[in-house]
Amino acid sequence: FFFNDTATTEIYTEQIVGSVRCVQETVIRRFHKNGLYLQFDQAKDLLKAFRLENEHILPSIPVNLDIYGKYNVAGVHKDDLDPNPVTWDPERKAYSNDWERFINPQEKLGMDDSDRAIDVSIGERLKNPQNLLELVDFALKEQFLSVCAIYEILEQLYNLESHCVLIAVDDYNWLYRPSVYPSFRYANKKELNKKIPPYHLSLCRAFMKFDGHKIKNGMKLCAASLGRFEKHVFSPEKLNFGLGYNYEVEQLELDDFRNFCTFCNQNGLWKVNSPNEFDIQRLYLMTQGNIGEAVECMVTYEY
């Protein structure tokens, strides 16, 4: 499902959860072997959040060793195609790897040494994990295994039948915009403006695919947040979505608005001590059930 709204995808039932922003400015490292950029720090943040929220569930979920150990340090499955193939730009008459002509032999040796230092998968280091908690804890102790662990965990969750699984991705439209990371390697693509695209960022790649149908006992929920873009629409047809796979959140009815206000108050967004029915109806009258307007009123005005 695809939600077109300034929504925050939250999970209310006992699901496997955890959250972190995938597109933000932190230190990254390039894996020259396949051209992907590794986000070790953000992957560790996600693992920590994942562990904190699911510590009571993870010990009871065994690792399926038949599908374990297939991903490398950058999160590429051994059966996947090249994640960064060489392409031709007819407008600029240049190949996507033309930048390699400007790399001298000494720099090339440095790239090879850099790759060798991190080219190890969690499957090679942890042969027979008993459950997902053991897998998470091992990855948190190692410096370069956090990204690989995320992909291995997702592989386990996608094939899990004993628990319900919900993959929730907020700000989904940001995965289709250039990142904040500059790189001369993308100077030939004017739409990227010398910025690394999210499809070459290891952690972003884990959540870009709209593949909820592959989850055996669950679904994938994506929300597009448009509040920061003036007159900008990110609609499902831009991704060739079929009918019935998307929903646009419109003005809420009063009963739904009450639940929304309670949720905002419980999570600290609406800083009112025990809002009563009068507070909720006054806010509803001001916003007519519009979620975006309601949130703005909650954080701007004191009641």
Quickly list its features.
single chain, 303 residues, alpha/beta, four-stranded parallel β-sheet, two-stranded antiparallel ribbon, 9 helices, 8 strands, 32% helix, globular, disordered N terminus
Task: Describe this protein's structure.
The protein is an alpha/beta fold. The protein has helices spanning 40-54, 105-118, 122-125, 132-141, 146-158, 202-208, 254-266, 277-287, 291-300; strands at 2-4, 29-31, 36-38, 88-89, 94-95, 165-169, 218-224, 246-248. It contains nine helices and eight strands. Strands 6-7-1-8 form a four-stranded parallel β-sheet, with no helix packed on it. Helix 6 links the parallel strand 6 (165-169) and strand 7 (218-224). The chain is globular. Residues 1-16 have low confidence and may be disordered.
Spatial separation of the terminal alpha carbons: 36 Å
Widest sheet, order of strands: 6-7-1-8
Total number of strands: 8
Mean pLDDT: 83
Q: What percent of the residues sit in helical stretches (DSSP H or I)?
A: 25-40%
List the topology elements.
Elements lengths: L1 E3 L24 E3 L4 E3 L1 H15 L33 E2 L4 E2 L9 H14 L3 H4 L6 H10 L4 H13 L6 E5 L32 H7 L9 E7 L21 E3 L5 H13 L10 H11 L3 H10 L3
Parallel strand pairs: 1-7, 1-8, 6-7
Antiparallel strand pairs: 2-3, 4-5
Helix pairs in contact: 1-4, 1-5, 4-5, 7-8, 8-9
